[in-house]
Design goal:
The complex is a heterodimer of chains A (about 250) and B (about 625).
Chain A (H helix, E strand, L loop, with lengths): L2 E7 L8 E7 L8 H14 L21 E3 L2 E2 L20 E7 L7 E3 L2 E2 L2 H8 L21 H11 L6 H5 L6 H13 L7 H14 L10 H5 L7 H16 L2
Parallel strand pairs in A: 1-5
Antiparallel strand pairs in A: 1-2, 3-4, 3-5, 6-7
Chain B lengths: L13 H8 L5 H4 L3 E5 L3 H13 L2 E5 L17 E2 L11 H11 L6 H21 L24 E2 L5 H19 L2 E4 L2 E9 L2 E9 L5 E5 L2 E4 L20 H8 L4 E2 L4 E7 L22 E5 L16 E2 L1 H5 L9 H16 L8 E4 L1 H7 L1 H19 L8 E10 L2 E2 L12 E3 L17 H21 L13 H19 L6 H15 L6 H21 L10 H25 L23 H4 L1 E6 L8 E6 L14
Parallel strand pairs in B: 1-2, 1-9, 2-5, 9-17
Antiparallel strand pairs in B: 3-4, 6-7, 7-8, 10-16, 10-18, 11-15, 12-13, 12-14, 14-15, 18-19
Helix pairs in contact in B: 3-6, 3-12, 4-5, 5-12, 10-11, 14-15, 14-16, 15-16
The chains are: A alpha+beta (about 250), B alpha+beta (about 625).
Chain lengths: ~250, ~625
C-alpha cells in the first residue's frame, strides 16, 4: 500500500518545529506502525537526510515508551492499543497519516516525536510506593488478600506510564496516571498505612509539574492502552478529600 | 586460575556461612562510599534501591527515558519461588535440582542452591511492595506450573509478572531517589569502564539528549544491563537491549563466560516479512493449557480447524510423554525446528507450528481460559489479526535469553575487582538452559538479597580509598577512547545503515550459531563476521550530529555486536559437545537429543579479550559436582 505522511519535525527543544510531508510506496499491510517508520527512516538515511526520532523500545505494548498522536488520536485509531501494536492494515491505501508528538506543558518535545516524560517519574518519587526496605517483609501468606481486591489493584497497577492520558486530555491532566498508582496501593492492605500522605504528596507534585486539572471528560480512559478506568480518579479525589479533612 | 570462591561445607550451609563471615560496612561509613549501578531492570533497580536504603551513595544509569521501561517489564509468565504453598512436594533442594538439571549440569551447585534458597524471600518482599500476584478465592497466593518441573512453584500477576515486579522495584528505587540516596541518570548510556589501580573505579557515559560525555567515579560499579539476545536482530528483546556495557567491560579485562549459550524461546510469533523488527513472545505459561502440533502430512495446505485429530502430530507429547507440552525450552525449540526443517512447518512462510487451545477451551470453558491468558490472546489478535479462541496460534522459536554473560564468582564480582555483574548480564545460575520463570527470580535475588552482602564485603576495604577524583588520568584516557570511537563512527560516511549490518549479522548467527551449530558452520561464521566488521568500518553511514541521534546509538551497539558475535562463535566452536541450548550437530543421540561429554567439557568457558587483532583466550573453570550426579537429562 501507499502511505502519505505528515510528520512533526523539530531539531531540538528550542526549535519551533514544522510538519513535513513524506510518501512511502509498497508498504506491507502486516507491518507494524513503527516498522513503517523504520522503513521511512531507512529511506531518509539513503537520501542523506536525518531520520525521524521517535520513542519506542519493547514493541510489544508493555514498556510504555512509544506513543505519538496519529491523525489526532493518542496511539492511533484503535482502542486500547499502543502505537507499537498498531498495524498498517488499520489504514487504507493512499491514506494521509498525520503524526505528531504527545503534547503537554509537562512533556516538552525534545526532538521530532521524542518527548520528556520525566514528570511522571517525579510524581512517583513524591509518594507512589509502599515504604518497605529490602529485608523487612513478613511471610507473604500471613496476609490474605481476597482475589477480587488483588485483581482490582492489578487493574490499576497495569498502567504502563505512556502518557496517552495526558496527551489526549484538553487540560493535559495526569489524573488518570496518578490516580491509577494511588488506587493500586490504597486498595491493598499493605498500602493503606501511608494512604493520606501519599495522596497529598502525589497530587501536589502533579500540580507542580504543570499538569492540568481533571474536568471529567473521560477521554483518557478511551485512549488508555491498558483500559485504566476513570473510577480511579474518583477514588483519588475521595482519598485526597479524606486526607485533607483528617489532616492534623 | 579462576577461583569462584564457593564456600566449603554442606550445600545448604554455604550461603549462611558466607553471610556470617562476610565483612560489613558500618552505617556511618556507608555514606562515604559511592556505587554506580548501570541498568534499571529488576537487578539494577533492586540493588540500587537496596544500597540506597542501607545508606550508600548510589548513582543509577539507564538508557531508557525512565527506569520503568527496562526490559524486565516485558516478562510475562511468572517468577519461581520455593514456598510449597501447593503442598506438592516442593523444597529448596528440589528447586535447586530442577534448575541444575534444566541447565544440563553446566552451572555451579553453590550458586544455584543459593538462588533457590533466596527465592521465598523475594515473594515476601514483592508482596510487601504491593505487587498484585494472582490469588485464590481464599485470599492466599496462587501458583502455576512452568516448563521442566513437576510442581507448581510459579507466582504470577496475570501475564504481566515482569511489569509488576519491575514496578515494585522501580517504586523502591524512586523512593530512594526522592530520599536523595540515589541519583538517577536516565537517557545515559555507559560507553566505557574506568579501571584504575586494577580496580573498577567508574564509568564514562554519554548523555543521549545532549551528546555530552560525562565521567562518574565510584568505589564499586555494578553492571545490571541485561542480556544480548538482540544480537540476532530478530528476537523477543526490546529494540534498545544491547551488550555494549558488558562488552566494553570485557575489553577492559572482565572475562565473558559461555557467551554462545542463548536460549531460543519456543513460543514466539513467527517472522512474517523482511521488514520485521521484533518477534513477540507469547508466554510459556500458555503451554500449561495449549497443545503444540503440526500436521502429519508434509506441506499440508488445509486450515488448522479442517485437519482432523488423527492427522495431527502432537510431537512434544509423542516424544516426551512425561513432560509433554511443558518440556524445557531448549528441547521444545529444537523439536519445533526439527519438524519445520523436515517440511511440516505451517503458515505462509512454513516457519511455524500450532499452539492449540481447543481442548482446554472444551474442558475448562472459554471464560476460564480468558481469565488465565486474556491479555496474551488479546496481544496475539492485535499483532496477527487472528482470534486464538477460534483457531490455533502460530508460534515459532526466537532468540530470547543469554545464559552467558560476564564471568562472576560466588560474590557476583567479575575478574575486575570492584566490578559486579547482576541478573542476565552475568552467566551464573542457569547453566546451558534457563528454566522458565527463573530469570525474574535471578535478577531479583541478585539485587535484593545477594549483592547487598557481597558488595559490602568488597566495599569494607574501600573505605580508606577516599573520594574518587574523575580528573585522574584513567578517566581522561577512557573518555578519550569513547570520544575517538564516536568520531570514527560519524566519520565513515558510507552508505549503509547500522540496521543493515545488524540484520546481516543476525542472519549469520541464526543460521550458524543458533538452535544448532556445527564446526564447519561456526568456522565459516567467524570469517563472515570478520568480513562484515571490515565492511562496517568502511561503509557505515551515521547521519545527524552528536545530540539526540538514534543512528549513532545503534552504530555503537552494532560495532560491539560485531565483536561479541565473533566471540560467541569461538565459544560454540571450542565446546565440542552438546549441552542444553548449545546443540552441536556432531554430538547427538540417534533420537536427536543433545549428547553431553562430561569427561572433557564439565567446565565454564571464560574468555579473555586479547586485543582487536588476536583471537580470544580461553580459561576454564572446572565444575565440581559434590552433591548431585550429572545424569542424562531426560524428559521422556
Amino acid at each position: 500500500m501507499r502511505i502519505r505522511l505528515k510528520i512533526w519535525r523539530q531539531e531540538n527543544q528550542q526549535d519551533p518545529g514544522k510538519m513535513v510531508n513524506y510518501t512511502l510506496e509498497d508498504i506491507n499491510p502486516h507491518m507494524s506502525f513503527l516498522e513503517m517508520l523504520d522503513t521511512l527512516n531507512e529511506q531518509l538515511l539513503q537520501d542523506g537526510t536525518r531520520p525521524v526520532e521517535f520513542d519506542h523500545d519493547c514493541r510489544e505494548g508493555i514498556c510504555g515508551q512509544c506513543g505519538v498522536m496519529i491523525n489526532g488520536r493518542a496511539h492511533g485509531p484503535l482502542a486500547n492499543t499502543t502505537t507499537c501494536q498498531l498495524h498498517m492494515r488499520t489504514f487504507t491505501d493512499n491514506e494521509e497519516i498525520v503524526i505528531e508528538p504527545f503534547r503537554a506543558t509537562a512533556f516538552p518535545v525534545k526532538c521530532d516525536l521524542k518527548i520528556d516524560r520525566t514528570a511522571f517519574d517525579r510524581v512517583i518519587q513524591s509518594g507512589g510506593f509502599i515504604s518497605v526496605n529490602t529485608g523487612q517483609a513478613p511471610e507473604a501468606n500471613d496476609m490474605a488478600i481476597g482475589s477480587p481486591t488483588a485483581e482490582a489493584a492489578f487493574d490499576a497497577a497495569a498502567c504502563i506510564g505512556c502518557g496517552a492520558c495526558v496527551a489526549v486530555c484538553k487540560n493535559s491532566s495526569a489524573a488518570l496516571f496518578t490516580s491509577a498508582k494511588i488506587s493500586h496501593l490504597v486498595l491493598l492492605p499493605q498500602g493503606k498505612i501511608e494512604a493520606q500522605e501519599r495522596v497529598r504528596k502525589m497530587v501536589d507534585q502533579m500540580d507542580k509539574e504543570g499538569f492540568g486539572h481533571c474536568s471529567n471528560t473521560e477521554a483518557c480512559e478511551a485512549e488508555c492502552p491498558q483500559q485504566i478506568s476513570v473510577l480511579h480518579i474518583a477514588r483519588m479525589n475521595y482519598e485526597y478529600n479524606k486526607a485533607q479533612v483528617l489532616k492534623k | 586460575m579462576l577461583d569462584a570462591k564457593i564456600p566449603g561445607g554442606p550445600l545448604e550451609d554455604k550461603w549462611s556461612y558466607y553471610k556470617a563471615h562476610a565483612k560489613l560496612v558500618n552505617p556511618a561509613n556507608r555514606k562515604k562510599l559511592t556505587v554506580i549501578v548501570v541498568g534499571t531492570g529488576l537487578a539494577g533497580s533492586s540493588i540500587a534501591a537496596s544500597l540506597g536504603e542501607m545508606g550508600y551513595n548510589v548513582k543509577s544509569f539507564c538508557f531508557q527515558d525512565s527506569p520503568r521501561r527496562a526490559h524486565s517489564v516485558a516478562a510475562q509468565g511468572g517468577v519461581n519461588a520455593c514456598k510449597n504453598y501447593k503442598n506438592d512436594g516442593d523444597s529448596v533442594y528440589r528447586m535447586f535440582y530442577d534448575t541444575i538439571k534444566g541447565g544440563d549440569f553446566r552451572a555451579r551447585e553453590g550458586n544455584v542452591y543459593r538462588m533457590a534458597e533466596c527465592s521465598a524471600n523475594l515473594i515476601d518482599q514483592a508482596v510487601a511492595q504491593g505487587v498484585p500476584f494472582g490469588r485464590e478465592y481464599g485470599g492466599y497466593l496462587n501458583n502455576r506450573s512452568f516448563g521442566g518441573v513437576q510442581v507448581s512453584r510459579t507466582f504470577y500477576a496475570r501475564g504481566q509478572t515482569g511489569q509488576q515486579l519491575l514496578l515494585g522495584a522501580y517504586q523502591a528505587l524512586m523512593r530512594q531517589v526522592g530520599a536523595g540516596t540515589v541519583q538517577l541518570f536516565a537517557r545515559h548510556e555507559m560507553l566505557d569502564l574506568v579501571v584504575a589501580g586494577g580496580k573498577a573505579k567508574g564509568v564514562i557515559v554519554r548523555n543521549m539528549d545532549t551528546g555530552e560525555l560525562e565521567r562518574h567515579g565510584a568505589h564499586a560499579v555494578v553492571l545490571a544491563t541485561g542480556g544480548f539476545g538482540k544480537i540476532y536482530y530478530l528476537s523477543t528483546l526490546a529494540m534498545g537491549c544491547n551488550g555494549s556495557a558488558i562488552w566494553r567491560a570485557h575489553k577492559r579485562g572482565a572475562y565473558m563466560a559461555n557467551p554462545s549459550w542463548t536460549q531460543i524461546h519456543p513460543t514466539s510469533l513467527p517472522q512474517s516479512g523482511e521488514y520485521q523488527s521484533k518477534l513477540t513472545l507469547m508466554s510459556e505459561s500458555l503451554r500449561n493449557d495449549g497443545r503444540i502440533w503440526v500436521p502429519k502430512k508434509e506441506g499440508e495446505e488445509r486450515e488448522p480447524n479442517q485437519i482432523p485429530e488423527e492427522e495431527r502430530d502432537y510431537y512434544l507429547e509423542r516424544r516426551y510423554p512425561a513432560f509433554g507440552n511443558l518440556s524445557p525450552r531448549d528441547i521444545a525449540s529444537r523439536a519445533a525446528k526439527e519438524r519445520i526443517d523436515a517440511g511440516y512447518g505451517i503458515g505462509p512462510l512454513k516457519n511455524a507450528v500450532y499452539l492449540d487451545f481447543s481442548k482446554a477451551i472444551k474442558d475448562q470453558g472459554e471464560d476460564t481460559i480468558r481469565k488465565k491468558y486474556g491479555n496474551l490472546f488479546r496481544m496475539y489478535e492485535k499483532i496477527t489479526g487472528v482470534d486464538a479462541y477460534k483457531e490455533p496460534m502460530r508460534i515459532s522459536p526466537a532468540a530470547h535469553f543469554s545464559m552467558g554473560g560476564l564471568w562472576v564468582d560466588y560474590e557476583l564480582m567479575t575478574t575486575i575487582p570492584g566490578l559486579f555483574a547482576l541478573g542476565e548480564a552475568n552467566f551464573a545460575d542457569h547453566g546451558a538452559n534457563r528454566l522458565g520463570a527463573n530469570s525474574l527470580l535471578q535478577a531479583c535475588v541478585d539485587g535484593y538479597f545477594i549483592a547487598p552482602y557481597t558488595m559490602a564485603n568488597y566495599l569494607a576495604d574501600e573505605i580508606k580509598a577516599g573520594p574518587i577524583d574523575v580528573r585522574d588520568a584513567p578517566f581522561a584516557a577512557a573518555e578519550e577512547n569513547v570520544h575517538q570511537q564516536l568520531k570514527r563512527l560519524m566519520g565513515i560516511q558510507g552508505n549503509l545503515s547500522a540496521d543493515y549490518f545488524h540484520k546481516t549479522l543476525g542472519k549469520i548467527l541464526y543460521d550458524k550459531c543458533g538452535l544448532s551449530r556445527s564446526k564447519e558452520g561456526l568456522e565459516a561464521a567467524i570469517k563472515e563476521i570478520a568480513a562484515l566488521r571490515e565492511e562496517f568500518w568502511q561503509r557505515l553511514y551515521v547521519p545527524g550530529g552528536y545530540a539526540i541521534n538514534t543512528e549513532l546509538e545503534k552504530a555503537g551497539r552494532v560495532a560491539d555486536y560485531l565483536e561479541l558475535g565473533e566471540l560467541m562463535c569461538y565459544d560454540a566452536l571450542a565446546r565440542d559437545e552438546s549441552c542444553g541450548a548449545h546443540f552441536r550437530v556432531e554430538h547427538q543421540t540417534p533420537e536427536g537429543e543433545a549428547m553431553r561429554n562430561d569427561q572433557d567439557f564439565s567446565f565454564i568457558s571464560a574468555w579473555e579479550w586479547e586485543g582487536a587483532d588476536k583471537p580470544p583466550l580461553l580459561h576454564k573453570e572446572p565444575l565440581h559436582f559434590e552433591f548431585v550426579t550429572p545424569t542424562v537429562r531426560s524428559y521422556k
